[in-house]
């Protein structure tokens, strides 16, 4: 019978009467693609060949990891092994290994013939390159926001912003260089907001996402700051010119099709009387007839 240090089993069955397990850590963190060992230590046992099993519990559903003296879980079959006395070693952990693991030991020769212990494994995942959004041009005195997002890292990363390769402090008032700046950074969401942009805020910006497994950052992007919204003025002017051009084109097209022709004249064609058989009458005040070559007596 294995002996147990004095006081360890206070209130429990005597060490020679039952199997007792313990672990060094019930909550284990590991970095992705690095090895990790889950410990299942047998403190007390009388049975020479106990039955040892490991189960993986994910989303409340258990599956075998070690069963009938071999690794049986498909995803871990070539990535894990049992180490004496009952530890499980995972050679290179992946994010899919995040779960609860239960070590079970059955000892038929012991009065207390069964014990189990539950271990929680969380695999840290390094962030991937975040997606950064930086406006190309802004106007002095206006507000703007720079965005940064990464959704692969675990635990969720914290975000930091850099301006011309220099990290921006979370509180601009804590630095003499940024004392007059109006920006604010949300390290949880990755947002960098400017209440009032200054000329000094122009330059290159990039964002970094970081957690306990590592960090990643996007490429620098340039933000220009203008005194006047040149681009806006140009677009507005161009829009007005284009509007009048289209209006003039429509009018010309309509004129060519005769849409504006006065139809009243064409519909009322007056027939002026022609010559009265070659005879013309003079004015009434002349008091006599004018003879024409066609007058017949």
From TrEMBL:
The chain crosses the membrane at residues 230-255. GO terms for cellular component: bicellular tight junction; cell-cell contact zone; plasma membrane; protein complex involved in cell adhesion. SMART domains: IG, IGc2. InterPro entries: Ig-like_dom (IPR007110), Ig-like_dom_sf (IPR036179), Ig-like_fold (IPR013783), Ig_sub (IPR003599), Ig_sub2 (IPR003598), Ig_V-set (IPR013106), JAM-C (IPR042974). Residues 14-120, 127-211 form the Ig-like domain. GO terms for biological process: cell migration. It is a single-pass type I membrane protein. Belongs to the immunoglobulin superfamily. It is found in: Cell junction, Tight junction; Cell membrane. It comes from Tetraodon nigroviridis (Spotted green pufferfish). One of its GO terms (molecular function) is protein heterodimerization activity. It comes from the Eukaryota. Keywords: Cell junction, Cell membrane, Disulfide bond, Immunoglobulin domain, Membrane, Signal, Tight junction, Transmembrane, Transmembrane helix. This is Junctional adhesion molecule 3.
């Amino acid at each position: 019978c294995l002996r147990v240090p004095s006081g360890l089993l206070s209130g429990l069955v005597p060490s020679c009467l039952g199997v007792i397990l313990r672990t060094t850590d019930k909550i284990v963190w590991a970095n992705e693609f690095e090895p990790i060992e889950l410990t299942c230590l047998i403190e007390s046992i009388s049975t020479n060949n106990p039955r040892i099993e490991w189960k993986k519990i994910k989303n409340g559903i258990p599956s075998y990891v070690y069963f009938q003296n071999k690794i049986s879980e498909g995803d871990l079959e070539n990535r894990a092994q049992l180490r004496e006395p009952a530890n499980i070693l995972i050679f290179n952990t992946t994010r899919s290994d995040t779960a609860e693991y239960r070590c079970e030991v059955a000892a038929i020769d012991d009065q207390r013939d069964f014990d189990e212990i539950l271990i929680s494994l969380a695999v840290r995942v390094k962030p991937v390159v975040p997606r950064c959004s930086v406006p190309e041009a802004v106007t002095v005195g206006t507000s703007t926001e720079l965005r940064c997002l990464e959704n692969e890292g675990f635990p969720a990363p914290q975000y930091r912003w850099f301006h011309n390769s220099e990290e921006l402090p979370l509180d601009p008032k804590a630095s003499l260089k940024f004392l007059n700046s109006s920006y604010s950074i949300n390290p949880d969401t990755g947002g960098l907001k400017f209440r009032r942009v200054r000329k000094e805020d122009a330059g290159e910006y990039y964002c970094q996402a970081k957690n306990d497994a590592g960090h990643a950052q996007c490429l620098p992007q340039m933000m220009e700051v203008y005194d006047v919204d040149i681009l806006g003025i140009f677009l507005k002017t161009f829009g007005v010119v284009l509007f009048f051009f289209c209006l003039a084109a429509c009018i010309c097209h309509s004129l060519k099709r005769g849409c504006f022709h006065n139809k009243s004249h064409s519909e009322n064609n007056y027939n002026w009387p022609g010559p009265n058989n070659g005879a013309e009458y003079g004015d009434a005040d002349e008091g006599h007839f004018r003879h024409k070559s066609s007058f017949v007596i």
